[in-house]
Each structure stands twice: as C-alpha cells, then as structure tokens.
Amino acid sequence: MNVLEALKSTEFLLSLGTSATASGLRRCLQRSPFVQAVRESLLKGEITEEGIRRFVGCLEREFQPGIQFFHEPALAALAVALEGRRTAFAEGYLYDLARLNKIAEMDLAPRVAGACLKEWMKLSKVVKRKYSASDRLREYWIGGIQSKRPGSGGQGKGWTKFTFRMTDDAET
Amino acid sequence: MPKLEYFLVAESYSSDKDVDAISIFNVFNQFRFKKLPETVPKLVTISCWLSSQEEIAEHSDHQVVIRFSLPGESEREYRGNFQCDTKCQHVVLELQNVKISRSGEITVALSIDEEYKCSHTIFVSVEGD
Fold first, then answer.
1. Cα A62 vs. chain centroid, distance in angstroms?
2. Is residue B87 part of a domain?
3. Which residues constitute the domain of residue B51?
4. Does the residue B129 lie in any domain?
5. Any idea which of A66-80, A124-138, B50-64 has the lowest mean pLDDT?
6. Do A157 and B88 touch (CB under 8 A)?
C-alpha cells in the first residue's frame, strides 16, 4: 500500500489511540511509523509534494459540511510529516490547514498544523534569509508570483490575494 | 476608480465561495505583549472595493499600496494590482512574520493608484507598562 493511502487505513487510525489534545496527537504522530514512512518516502523521492497535493485533493472531495471530517487524522499526519521541510509547499500546507481552526468539521488537525507551523518557523529562522522585505517585494512583484488562486479557499473572481513575508532586517 | 467600501487589519479571514461571503476573525486594534520584541506570525489587510459597470466592462486595473509603519522603524510598502471583474472586489494582502520591537502605534495606510484612502491603527503595549 502507498504510504499516503496508508493514512486512510483503519490500522493508522487505531494506532493513534485517543489523543484529546492537539499536542498529544502531534506527539503521537511524531512517533508514528506511518508518518515516518511518509517523511522517508519524500526524502527518497518515492512520493512528491505534488503527489501529496493530489492526495489531499482526493480527501477534500469527501468533505461534507456539518459532518466531522473523517480524514482529519490524515491531514494532521501530513502536517507533522511536512513540518521539517523548508519548502513553499510545506509552508503553504501548514498555513492553509492551521487557518481552518474555526470550522466545526475539524477539531484537532488545524491546531496540530498550527503547532507544526510554529516549529516550521523556528527552523526557518535558523536559515538566514538572503533577502530584505523590499527584495521579497521585488521577487513577488517583478517576478510576477502573485498568489491569485482561483477556486481555492474562496479565491477567484472578485478576489485578489497577495502574500508577503516581512523579515527583520537584522536577520537578513 | 473603484470606491472603497471598507478596510480592516485582522488576524485571519475565511471566505465562502458558495455564497461569496467573507468572515473576518480578530480585527486588530491592540497588541498587548508580555515582552518585546515579539513576532506576529500573520496578519491580513482586507479591503473591499466597489466597481462601476464601466470599470467592470473595461476590466480596469488598479494598484493598491499598503504602507506599514511599525514603531521606531521606517515605513514599508507593499503593492498589489487588481482588476475590476466584479461589482465587489476583495483585495487581501497577507503579511507574515511581522516583528514588533517597540510599543507605540502601528499604522497601516491604504492607497489606490497613489491616492491615499484611509488607515487602520493598532496600539502596541507591554503588560505592566
């Protein structure tokens, strides 16, 4: 079974026990062989971030408003698996999941992602950024990397979104 | 030029594309920290613009500028363009890792096509001060 598909399995769900808090679930996932398998597969190139994106897209199709999201543990597991990767995809995934903390269909996964994001940001601080806020602006602007994402999270016609990272100049 | 309907600075927002509705969470008016410096992981500036039929027909392009003044620091500027595709256009500028070093006032000023429109102020204080 693919390491991603394994996150939908009963074995994976049973392995998590009954963690009632986000920190408890995160600790449990950090030790989980299922999550370690995802991490290792990513490192070896057996799966890709694009593969994870597609997998999450498949899970999302089973989302039903008003009903607890069945695949929430899988999303939390991916957050833990990605927290050590300093890639734009990992950052985007953690941000997007963490900001779902107001929806009723998920209890713990957004909070697990929030904790992972804090860890991710600590790791990012270790790497001295090579750009200042204005350089970053140039990168976004002249490079034309405008995060306009039609159809995603309500973005689309009538919506324009830009993201900037404001860094401390002393760290650059 | 589109007409500004509202402008806010908040922690996050959520949009429901089914009903084209926006929910804005934790509008910032004050930051009260235990110590400084402190980093705000994310804040969003949300402006809503109303376009005329002519502007929609022409897909007129406009540039929004956010000028961000942190206490004791020089002003920073963030720009983004949008097109008038619909009557109501939301422009969201998300700022990540906002490091605040001093107490005082954070001013977030909004301009469109180099014309100042309005600003949002956040008061920064340290507990005990």
1. 18
2. yes
3. 3-124
4. no
5. A124-138
6. no
Q: Total domain count for chain B?
A: 1
**CA proximity to B113, closest of B77, B64, B50, B54:** B64
Q: A69 to chain B nearest CA, in Å?
A: 18
Which value does ipTM take for this structure? 0.71
- B43 within some domain: yes
Whole-model pTM: value is 0.48
Distance CA B94, CA A140 (A): 13
B40 in a domain, yes or no? yes
Q: Per residue in A104-132, pLDDT tens?
A: 888 889 999 999 988 888 766 544 333 33
Interface check for B72 against chain A (CB to CB < 8 A): the answer is no
**B15 in A contact zone (CB under 8 Å):** yes
A88 vs A132, more confident: A88
**Chain A to chain B Cβ contacts (< 8 Å):** 82
Element (H, E) at B12: strand B3-16
